[in-house]
Amino acid sequence: MAKEKYYILISRYLSGELSEQEKIDLKNWINASDENRQIFNNLDRLWNTTETPEPDTIPPFEKIWANVDSEIKAADPKYSSADTYKLNLSGMFQNIWKFAFAAQHKYAFAALLVLALGTGLLFKNVNLINPYLEVKTAYAQQTKLLLPDSSQIDLNADTVIKYHKDFSDSIRAVYLSGQAFFQIKHDGRPFIVHTDNAQIRVLGTQFDVKARDLVTRVIVKEGRVALESTTIAANKLILQKNEMGVCEKKSNILEHKPVDAMYMIGWLNNTLVFEMTPLYEIIKELERHYNKEIELIDSNVGSKTITGEFKDQSIEQVLSAICITLDLNYSFDNGRYIIK
User: Fold this and answer.
1) pLDDT tens digit sequence for 247-259
2) Backbone phi, then psi, for 205, in 5-degree steps?
3) Contact by Cβ (8 Å): 18, 9
4) What ranges in 17-156 are assigned the alpha helix state H?
5) How far apart are the C-alpha atoms of 195 and 210, rounded to whole Å?
């Protein structure tokens, strides 16, 4: 089946029109390649964060495309107006827009978004729909964030979060890479956290999300959340208080188990918590937490695991405890710690 036909399947998926066989076809296509998965994820995220326009409103496409062209020229010296054919499709979009609302087709707006994706518009570094705000934290830095709906977020070190400056009337969505603790204000609208390989859907609750290295981990402190893989449509977990769910992109498997949420999210109180954690992951966390470079000489010991917690301790104290446990040694040389 040609790619264009799958764009139609995606639009039908967005509007809830897929038959059982079409769901299978779409799932197989998504899993066939990383490119297909990226196409689906980008469109799904755009659909969840875009307000459907009023039927009697037709945007000024000519003006929009003119602004796009000038913005790209300013941002990319290699861009020339010869590339305009990739973007200047205003007549096509305007005709589809008019047809969509004249026919009152249930998934016409979804089809419009699909067309935008198919023409490559969504892969341009131009934000025509929903300008986002972005907050980043550096190594050894944590910060607090208040969202437009008064929800609160604590960001751990080395974290990026993006969100629309004004949430829509129907949905609230953020995009996370790193680790954050969410305290969501209940206002009737779903709140969705998007990561590289999963999405977490809630109404009002408190939970921690860690999204690093193609793994999304969710720990619920209060309320309930739905953890869903974005690569397998039917792969979903409902997590409740003191439960942890994990979604791994490589395996596409969702796992969950009971945990002590307060203990597991100790980073909020400057406590490093490791539970059967491989040494190579611990080293990454220590580098983020202390903003120090750590080198592991023997990569074969990287898979050895540690369970324990470290509160308000120096990096030397933490490394000493780890090395004693694993029968290793560490030294400090030329601005970095070396484990061997």
Assistant:
1) 987 766 788 899 9
2) -170, 180
3) yes
4) 20-32, 34-48, 61-75, 90-103, 108-118
5) 9
